[in-house]
Specification:
The complex is a heterodimer of chains A (460) and B (225). Chain A has ten helices and twelve strands. With 460 residues, chain A is of the alpha+beta class. Among the domains of chain A are: 213-298, Helix Hairpins (Orthogonal Bundle); 303-459, Heat Shock Protein 90 (2-Layer Sandwich), CATH 3.30.565.10. A five-stranded antiparallel beta sheet of chain A has the order 2-1-5-4-3. A five-stranded mixed beta sheet of chain A has the order 7-9-10-12-11. In chain A, strands 6-8 form a two-stranded antiparallel sheet. In chain A, helix 5 packs parallel to helix 9 (420-431) and helix 6 (311-328) runs parallel beside helix 7. Chain A is rod-shaped, with a radius of gyration of 51 Å. The two termini of chain A are 73 Å apart. Chain B is an alpha/beta fold. Chain B folds into two domains: 3-117, Response regulator (Rossmann fold), CATH 3.40.50.2300; 127-221, Winged helix-like DNA-binding domain superfamily/Winged helix DNA-binding domain (Arc Repressor Mutant, subunit A, Orthogonal Bundle). Chain B has helices at 11-23, 34-42, 60-69, 85-93, 106-117, 153-163, 172-180, 189-202; strands at residues 3-7, 27-31, 48-52, 76-80, 98-101, 127-130, 133-136, 141-144, 147-149, 170-171, 211-214, 218-221. Chain B has a five-stranded parallel beta sheet, with helices on both faces. In chain B, strand 1, helix 1 and strand 2 form a beta-alpha-beta unit. In chain B, helix 2 (34-42) runs parallel beside helix 3 (60-69). Chain B is elongated and about 60 Å long. The chains are: A alpha+beta (460), B alpha/beta (225). At the A-B interface, helix 5, helix 6 and helix 7 of A face helix 8 of B.
């Protein structure tokens, strides 16, 4: 027979185990209590027996029997035992049938099985007794029936049994309840996860608002799901953008080839069409390459490539690479170093980022403009600043331009991929630096970094 | 006639490439997987290897690594669909001599193949000469005939690279990788601007130009006829 579902859950098993441990503890505690109690009771009885023996013995020898009889008479609860036996073991007085065998003389109280005889008849009972040798050869036995101890034992037993059965019922109910409740929640969670897996990204874990561990976990998972949903939506829109951006040049190429095939009058016409087509395809390839590059940077965590980079040197190099280019466009290009600084960075990537900013600046600044690449300080931070006299960026466009493919209105007329700044943003983010693009006239982009001290590092 | 061993598993690609190469006067041997490629390369009959990065059987880089361990030093050009910077570095570390990312222009492939076949011998002389052009590597000075040419350090580097490879087509990507040693792809005309500068310095008013533009593809340094 299979157990019901709730009995097979971990929760239920845990409850059972805890309950088992609880029973063991209870039994142990009661055992100790019982032991202590019975020891206490026995010592009490022993004292009473001892007193009785002393009372009987004290005084005239001839009246010993009388004194014993007195004692036995004043015993409404019928717990006292006593007897005087001659040296042959024959009973002279008292309510003990015969001298119990194997008892130590003149010792402390001991347990013995004796036969009690009185008006009601004869019965065997366990008692605490003292045996004393009387002067003249007779033997005195006094004792007491420890009737309270078994009584207490019986009561205790009843309490334990009753208590434990109640606890057992309670435990089982609680276990079942907990187990069923947990199971229900997990089933609910499972159901929702399955729906998420099936693509329903809007689904969330259920919360009760009671801040229990389950709830906290659910809140955490929901937060994670929010992030994932946002990311997926971003990706999807980036994917859409890619598709759009590739579709346009590919369509152009297709039309070009189609028309050339139908209309070309000469081999030269065809050749020029093919050249245009190749250029168009190169353009789409460069989009794909740039995208892959951004993804590569966004996904790398290769801090191993990081080294101490001298920023002034790096900026000079970028200047060196782009100076002829700016010159060609009759732009006034200057590299200014206010402060020699160094930073932990991937040199190649950082070079690429700065080169991109400069490239952008050259691209967007009209002929005759000015362009500056500057290394400076702002309090704790080192700043790499690229500024130009181009059209600048409006506040609302700042975030957008860092997203893939976005090109501000000012640049619609200039050919480009719209990926440059997202690449820069990805590189800056990888380094833990900050990219700031100032709004207003003239384009100003700043990379703020944490400078390191070259000297300390060399010393280390 | 240079012999090329083409190790490429994509049949269509291999056919296109080998036809192009044969049209240009190379002898082409083909292998469709790593095992076959390795066996054919071991015979040392090829002058240059073109190895696809991802091959069935043995991976392209593993082929090159194995060859290098066996002291087969035939220059190898890796073709790869993996374009990440790390992949390129890994390819060069495995012992390949150049790394070209798909998709590429056919001329880019040919130029790089030629560069591998005509690798400049370790030239220990302290001066380079192409026609009237002379480069003193110690004094770091240049002259054309009697005329001294004043070069910036970056222009000197560029000219040195070109003078070590006279008459060879040098593509923009090759120049950018080798002269500037940068690992990203700049806008195409960045190299042109630098070459333009250099050309204006090399060519006097009445002199014939020594740097030839190959339309859309790259540059050749050549002694004037």
């Amino acid at each position: 027979m299979r157990l019901p579902e709730f009995m097979r859950t971990t929760t239920f098993r845990s409850v059972l185990m805890i309950f088992g441990a609880f029973v063991l503890c209870t039994l142990l505690i009661f055992g100790i209590v019982l032991r202590q109690t019975s020891a206490y009771l026995t010592s009490n009885i022993d004292r009473l027996v001892d007193n009785m023996a002393k009372t009987v013995i004290a005084g005239e020898l001839l009246r010993t029997t009388e004194r014993l009889e007195d004692q036995l008479r004043s015993d409404p609860r019928q717990v006292k035992l006593g007897g005087i036996f001659d040296s042959a073991g024959t009973r002279i007085a008292g309510n003990i049938e015969s001298l119990p065998p194997g008892l130590r003389m003149n010792a402390l109280a001991q347990t013995a099985l004796v036969a009690r005889i009185d008006d009601t008849g004869r019965r065997m009972q366990t008692a605490r007794v003292i045996v004393e040798q009387l002067p003249g050869g007779n033997t005195l036995v006094v004792g007491r029936d420890p009737d309270e101890a078994p009584e207490i034992f019986k009561i205790t037993q009843r309490v334990v049994v009753l208590g434990l059965s109640a606890a057992l019922c309670h435990g089982l109910t609680a276990g079942a309840w907990l187990s069923i409740r947990t199971q229900k929640r997990i089933e609910e969670v499972n159901r929702r996860i399955q729906r998420i897996v099936a693509g329903e990204l809007r689904q969330r874990m259920p919360t009760l608002g009671n801040n229990d561990p389950f709830d906290r976990l659910a809140v955490l998972v929901n937060g994670m799901l929010d992030n994932i949903e946002a990311l997926v939506r971003n990706l999807a829109s980036a994917g859409d953008d890619i598709a759009h951006d590739l579709r346009t040049p590919l369509t152009r190429v297709r039309i070009l080839l189609e028309r050339a095939r139908g209309n070309a009058q000469s081999f030269e016409d065809l050749e020029s069409a093919v050249d245009h087509a190749i250029a168009g395809i190169d353009h789409t390839i460069s989009i794909v390459t740039a995208l892959l590059r951004i993804r590569e940077i966004e996904q790398t965590r290769r801090l191993v490539e990081f080294s101490d980079v001298k920023m002034a040197e790096l900026l000079q190099e970028v200047g060196d690479l782009y100076e002829p280019f700016a010159d060609e466009k009759r732009l006034l290009f200057s590299v200014k170093i206010d402060s020699e600084l160094a930073a932990r960075a991937d040199r190649d990537l950082l070079f690429e980022a700065i080169a991109n900013l400069v490239d952008n600046a050259i691209k967007f600044t009209p002929e005759g403009g000015r362009l500056e690449l500057r290394l400076t300080r702002d309090g704790e931070n080192g700043i790499i600043r690229v500024s130009d006299t181009g059209p600048g960026i409006f506040e609302r466009e700042r975030e957008l331009i860092m997203q893939r493919f976005y090109r501000a209105d000012r640049s619609r007329s200039t050919k480009g991929l719209g990926l440059g700044l997202s690449l820069v943003a990805a590189i800056v983010k990888l380094h833990g630096f900050r990219l700031n693009i100032a709004p207003g006239a003239g384009f100003v982009a700043e990379i703020a970094f944490q400078p390191i001290s070259m000297k300390t590092h060399i010393a280390a | 006639m240079a012999r090329v061993l083409l190790i490429e598993d994509d049949t269509e690609m291999a056919t296109e490439l080998s036809e192009e190469l044969m049209g240009r006067g190379y002898a082409v041997e083909r292998a469709a997987d790593g095992t076959d490629g390795l066996a054919k390369a071991r015979t040392r009959q090829a002058d240059v290897l073109i190895v696809d990065r991802m091959l069935p059987g043995i991976d392209g880089l593993a082929v090159i690594e194995t060859l290098r361990k066996e002291r087969v030093r035939t220059p190898a050009l890796v073709l790869s669909a993996l374009g990440a910077v790390d992949d390129r570095v890994r390819g060069l570390r495995a012992g390949s001599d150049d790394y070209l990312t798909k998709p590429f222009a056919l001329l880019e492939l040919i130029a790089r193949l030629e560069a591998l076949l005509r690798r400049p011998a370790e030239n220990l002389s302290t001066a380079l000469r192409v026609g009237p052009l002379e480069l003193d590597l110690i004094a770091r000075s240049a002259r054309r005939g009697e005329r001294a040419i004043d070069l910036l350090p970056r222009e000197f580097r560029l000219l040195e690279y070109m003078m070590r490879r006279p008459g060879q087509l040098l593509t923009r990507a090759m120049l950018f990788e080798e002269v500037w040693n940068y690992k990203f792809v700049p806008r195409s005309n960045l190299v042109d601007v630098h070459i333009g500068r250099l050309r204006r310095k090399l060519d006097g008013p009445d002199e014939q130009s020594m740097i030839y533009n190959v339309r859309g593809e790259g540059f050749i340094l050549r002694a004037p006829a």
